[in-house]
Amino acid sequence: MIRTANLTDSISRKAGGLHESVRRLVQSLAAAQVEVRVLTARDEFTDQDLGAWYPVPVDVFPRSWPHYFGYSPGFLDVLKSYRPDLTHTHGIWLYPSIATAVYCKQNRVPYMISPHGMVDPWAVRNQRWKKVIAYAMYETNHLRGARCIRALCESEARSIRRIGIKNPVVVIPNGVDLPAPGAERKTGIAPWTELVEPGRKVLLFLSRIHPKKGLENLIRAWPQSTGSDLWALAIAGWEQGKHEAELKAICDQLGIIWADARDTDREKGDSSAKFRAKSASVIFLGPQFGEAKASCYRHCDAFVLPSFSEGLPMVVLEAWA
Description:
With 321 residues, the chain is of the alpha/beta class.
C-alpha cells in the first residue's frame, strides 16, 4: 500500500476552496485503499472543521511566530516518523513548502505540488514583496525539486511555466460530489427567504469575502444593472480582514439598500429593520456550510464569482452540480 503525506497550511474553512478540494481528494484516496495522512497547522476554525476529514488521520500542530507563516517543528517530526512513500504539498509560499523540500531532499522521497492557483499573475502580484523574498529563500527550491506539479486548468499550467518552472506539469481538475438523487427535494428554505420579496430573483455569491474575489467591483456595478430592481444580490461567505464592513460602507456611499441576515433588530421585530430588509438590493448572509450552503445553491437563480484570480474554484463546480 502506498503511504502518502499531504501537507497544507490549514484544513479549516479559513483555507477557502482547499478545505473542500483537499479534503475530498484525501478521503477518495483513502477509499481507494491508499494510506493517507494530513499534516497541518492550527487556526481558529480547526477544531470546528476537523471532524469533516474523517476517516483520514490529521496531525494538527500549534503555530509559532509569525503565525501567518504556519511554522511548526511538528511537520518534520511527523514526516520523519511516518516515512511516506510520496509527499504532496497543497498550496505554496508558507512553511509546508520548506518542510516538504527539506524532508524529501534528505530522504530522497518524491513529492508533488498542487499550487491551487497561487502562482497565477494576480496572486503573485498580491503582496509581491513577500512572494519575491519567499521565492528567493525557499520556494524556488521547493518548486524545482518536485517530481510533478499539478495544475487545475490550462491557464494555471501556463502560469507555472511563466515563472520559469520546467518540471513535468499535469492538468488534473478539482472534483466535486454530485448531489444524491432526491437531494433537491430535501434541501430546506433559502437563508434569504424572509429578506427577498416574492418574484424577485437572487444572484448568489458564495466564497471567501476577500478583496481578491472582486466584490467591490460587483457592488459598484450593481446599481448600473438594468435588472437590479428585479434581482437581489446575496453575498454568502466568511469575512477576512473586515472586508465585509468595507463592502457595506460602499453600499452606503452608493445609496444601495443592504440588509444583513444576522441582524438582531429585525429578528426582535423592529419594524424599520424589517422594512429595510424587504427593500434591500444587497443581502449579506454570513458563512454558509453543509445544508445551508446546499440550500443557497438550490434556491438561487444565478451564481457569480467575479474574482481577479482563480484556479478551478470549488464553488463554481458546486454551483454547476
